[in-house]
Amino acid sequence: MTIGSYQLDSNIIMAPMSGCTDLPFRLIAREEGASLCFFEMIDCNSLTHNSERTIKSMLQTNAQDRPIAAQLVGADPGAMVEGAKMLLGQISVPFIDINAACPVNKVVKKKAGAYLMQKPSILSKIIKKLSEAIKLPVTVKLRIGFEKYDKEALIKLVKKCEAAGAAAIFIHGRTAAQLYQSAVNYGAIKVVKQSVGIPVFGSGNVMSAELAKKMIDLTGCDGIMVARGGLGNPFIYKEIEHFFKTGKLLPDVGFETRKAVLKRHLKYINEYSRIRNKVGLMRKVAIWYLKKFHGAAHWRDQVNRTDKYEDMIRLVEAVG
């Protein structure tokens, strides 16, 4: 499958997630089977204002961290183009995604993210100007609606995105108002797939290989975008690939493997992370993994009392 001129190795893609898909997260996911990954969502204004955090932390990568794509969020076509050019001055990516799906209040208040679904003319202008300016494929991440799902409005929107030059659509099967709480509307994703001639990737509640297969079967979409299903579960990419190819589920990786991968993830945070509160990030990551462990509530409490990397490792080793 291709996105524009870019040939994908897999149709299973890691979603960009703010505060989650940093370099340590991506390296662990790749070691456990992920292929194409994304940086965290990047505010185009942080790039144009030469934000040190954006350039040094959010664009942090290394030779093992390939292939890597970028997603920009913003409201102004000119600022998005300028931000994309600054990004490409720092790092080479196969394509750039436009975020028109983020439902978070602080993003929507800036008339960015999911807000753009209410302004199809602005969104299509961003796609068109970006496609013309950077000479790379430009994709767009959408939800099925802002406040509610309107089939005809969604069809018009995705057709407008395609006409403006979008090379693929990533579609989350909930409205912005639903956040992550309601059931995924597979029918709406199917409508998107049937309305355009470009690749469509389904997103939302892909928490297992079975749910990934359900997404494909019920929508006819070309690929899957894994988001929260990968938190504390980097094995999901390999599990989905195996299930798609064989129709059989891989056995659970087991308790000791989960512990070993968590320790490695914490090690990468300690080595690579450039944020000030590394221990805070370690706690968050450890809690993701520990949800799968017996006595998770107890271990979560212990993690939140730990304030050193070495103590965190000892705690994980003690989990039993």
TrEMBL record:
Residues 14-311 form the DUS-like FMN-binding domain. It catalyses: a 5,6-dihydrouridine in tRNA + NADP(+) = a uridine in tRNA + NADPH + H(+); a 5,6-dihydrouridine in tRNA + NAD(+) = a uridine in tRNA + NADH + H(+). InterPro entries: Aldolase_TIM, DUS-like_FMN-bd, DUS_fam, DusB-like, tRNA-dHydroUridine_Synthase_C. It is an enzyme of class 1 (oxidoreductase). Its cofactor is FMN. Its EC number is 1.3.1.-. The active site is at 102 (proton donor). Keywords: Flavoprotein, FMN, NADP, Nucleotide-binding, Oxidoreductase, RNA-binding, tRNA processing, tRNA-binding. It comes from the Bacteria. FMN binds at residues 71, 141, 172, 227-228. One of its GO terms (molecular function) is tRNA binding. Belongs to the dus family. Catalyzes the synthesis of 5,6-dihydrouridine (D), a modified base found in the D-loop of most tRNAs, via the reduction of the C5-C6 double bond in target uridines. This is tRNA-dihydrouridine synthase. It comes from candidate division WOR-1 bacterium RIFCSPHIGHO2_01_FULL_53_15.
